[in-house]
Design goal:
Chain lengths: 266, 108
């Protein structure tokens, strides 16, 4: 029993085995730790990478961070196929199995409550991009003949940008409204920047929707129908994700929920 | 025991998800539990902010009204500085454009 324990998620016991070739962070296959009628999904990870010091250093390393985040998401994804996992934030690490068990006991009630709430539901991500004429920005504008000309050009540019944002905002608001009525819950995330996402255009809506599996097909169709509805607006759908954005437990004052109503006594 | 019905395959397995989609969920969302290995959660939060700042053009973000980091004293001075530098550059450019035009007008 060497190494530390990296916990991906907590779920209820499930019958379908995980795919055999699945590896988690640090290349270790995820194992199921049953305790008190719940399951923690756990990998063994080496101290040299996941003890406090090394972990701190690694988190500053974008390549390590990316690989670990992908591995984490890979396990959560595999779990989502067979059950409804409650995903933990990346890099939740314990000394040993008994540390994991203690944590499960302490949080048992909250876990059950949240798992009940999320049961049979998945998260869909919807993003709207306003397609800006990026070429326009790179090629220098026509050389203004005078100061007045310069100001006129500038004013026109600002105005056309304003129009575009106005249009994008209206479209994004309307779409979010429609999808929110359909979904059980929704969250608005900060717009993504292009350098990290690699997407073209300006991200004007970045939202997550909690939808039951049985209604997911309809939800996907609903989103698909809005594609190409308004020229210059691009709608992107991702998922199904585990309900990452909805995993906060309002009753335990978890910051993720953004609505701490009471403190968990522990 | 759970037996969820499967979701339509074409959209399965997080297809179409980019790195930002994955990072924002794995790093920012998900339930927060303090493990035995203490990584200061603030570190992760600062890290994601840093990530965004490194790759984001502050100007563009401000243009879109994304200025939530302004509330963070650790970051606001940097953001202010960048904005000032941008404004400065823009004013210089404008001045450079205006001056020859004015000289021309005066010469007439």
């Amino acid at each position: 029993m060497t190494g530390l324990r990296y916990v991906y998620a907590v779920c209820r016991p499930f019958g379908t085995p995980l795919q055999a070739q699945l590896t988690g962070v640090a290349g270790d296959p995820p194992r199921l730790l049953h305790h008190h009628g719940l399951v923690a999904v756990v990998s063994h990870v080496p101290e040299r990478d996941f003890a406090e010091g090394p972990l701190h250093r690694h988190l500053e390393d974008l390549d390590w961070l990316t690989a670990t985040a992908r591995a984490h998401q890979g396990v959560i994804d595999a779990l989502t196929v067979v059950t409804t996992p409650l995903p933990l934030r990346m890099a939740t690490v314990f000394r040993d199995d008994s540390g994991v068990r203690v944590m499960m006991e302490e949080r048992e009630e909250a876990f059950r409550r949240t798992l009940d709430r999320l049961q049979g539901r998945v998260e869909w991500g919807v993003k709207v991009y306003a397609e800006t004429e990026s070429k326009d920005k790179e090629t220098p504008a026509e050389k203004p003949a005078s100061g007045r000309d310069y100001l006129r050009q500038r004013r026109m540019k600002v105005r056309s940008n304003e129009d575009l944002w106005q249009q994008a905002e209206t479209f994004a608001n309307r779409l979010h409204e429609t999808l929110s009525t359909y979904a059980e819950d929704s969250r608005l995330h900060a717009p993504q920047n292009a350098a990290l996402s690699g997407a073209s255009g300006q991200n004007v809506l970045n939202a997550a929707y909690l939808v039951s599996r049985t209604e997911s097909e309809e939800f996907v169709e609903l989103v698909d129908r809005t594609k190409g509805e308004v020229p210059g607006m691009r709608v992107e759908l991702t998922g199904p994700w585990a309900a990452y954005s909805f995993s906060g437990d309002p009753a335990s004052g978890d910051p993720v929920s953004g609505d701490p109503t009471q403190k968990e006594d522990r | 025991m759970t037996t969820p019905s499967r979701v339509p395959e074409p959209w399965g397995q997080g297809s179409g998800a980019n790195l930002a989609d994955i990072l924002e969920r794995v790093l920012d969302k998900g339930i927060v539990i303090a493990g035995d290995i203490r990584i200061n959660l603030l570190d992760i939060e600062l890290l994601t902010i840093k990530l965004r700042l490194i790759v984001a053009s502050v100007d563009k973000a401000k243009e879109m009204g994304i200025d939530w980091w302004e509330d963070d004293p650790a970051l606001s001075s940097r953001a202010r500085h960048k904005e000032l530098a941008r404004e400065n550059a823009e004013l210089r450019e404008r001045l450079a454009q205006l001056e020859p035009a004015r000289a021309e007008e005066e010469a007439q």
